[in-house]
């Protein structure tokens, strides 16, 4: 997979962009500091529970919400569902340590903008933020692959196409690889 530099995405971000909902204090504060090292990114709020996160999103409609999947009060999936139901203009990135297909499937069914694992670097998370602000989707390739180990109604070629979408390739790039 070709790596994309951060500069490829930087022209699309504007100042006040994100809210972070993560119950682990050290991880939450580290994410804030590392994200804000990018001049064009500002974290508007870092919150430890889902109820406060949803309230903040309702009142402020930040460009991006970075949500832990399991946080006290209301899960990241529940917040995502409310955001979609109310048609807020907030892009949602779910971050998780869990490689559970059920969580992933629920997130995709609710049109999550990105679903990524916490084992990634903050630079990768920043790239994901840039992508979702541009309207692109990003899903963890390892989670997409796990879905294909069970009985799958998709043909092999359809699975390859779906996997490449998860890797961030465009339709044109996928066609170039396959044909």
Shape: globular
Taking all residues together, what is the mean pLDDT? 83
Element-by-element helix/strand order: EHEHEHEHEHEHHH
Give the domain tally. Answer: 2
Number of strands: 6
In short:
With 179 residues, the chain is of the alpha/beta class.
List keywords for this structure.
179 residues; alpha/beta; Rossmann fold; 6-stranded parallel β-sheet; 6 strands; globular
Q: Can you describe what's shown?
A:
With 179 residues, the protein is α/β, with parallel strands linked by helices. It has 8 helices and 6 strands. It starts with 15 loop residues before the first strand and ends with a helix. The protein is globular. A 6-stranded parallel sheet has the order 2-1-3-4-5-6, with helices on both faces. Helix 2 runs parallel beside helix 3. It folds into 2 domains: 129 residues, Rossmann fold (3-Layer(aba) Sandwich); 32 residues, no CATH class. The longest helix is centred in the last third of the chain and has 12 residues. The N terminus is likely disordered. 44% of the residues lie in helices and 16% in strands.
């Amino acid at each position: 997979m070709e790596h994309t530099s951060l500069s490829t995405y930087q022209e699309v971000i504007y100042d006040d962009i994100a809210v972070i909902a993560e119950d682990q204090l050290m991880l939450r504060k580290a994410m804030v500091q590392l994200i804000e090292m990018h001049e064009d990114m500002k974290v508007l709020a870092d919150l430890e529970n889902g109820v406060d996160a949803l309230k903040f999103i309702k009142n402020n409609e930040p460009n991006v919400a970075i949500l832990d999947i399991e946080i006290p009060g209301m899960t990241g999936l529940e917040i995502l569902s409310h955001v979609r139901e109310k048609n807020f203009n907030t892009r949602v990135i779910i971050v998780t340590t869990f490689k559970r297909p059920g969580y992933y499937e629920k997130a995709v069914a609710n049109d999550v903008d990105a679903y990524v694992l916490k084992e990634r670097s903050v630079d990768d998370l920043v790239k994901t933020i840039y992508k979702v602000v541009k309207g692109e989707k990003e899903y963890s390739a390892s989670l997409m692959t796990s879905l294909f180990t069970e009985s799958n109604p998709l043909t092999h070629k359809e699975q390859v196409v779906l996997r490449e979408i998860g890797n961030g390739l465009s339709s044109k790039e996928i066609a170039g690889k396959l044909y």
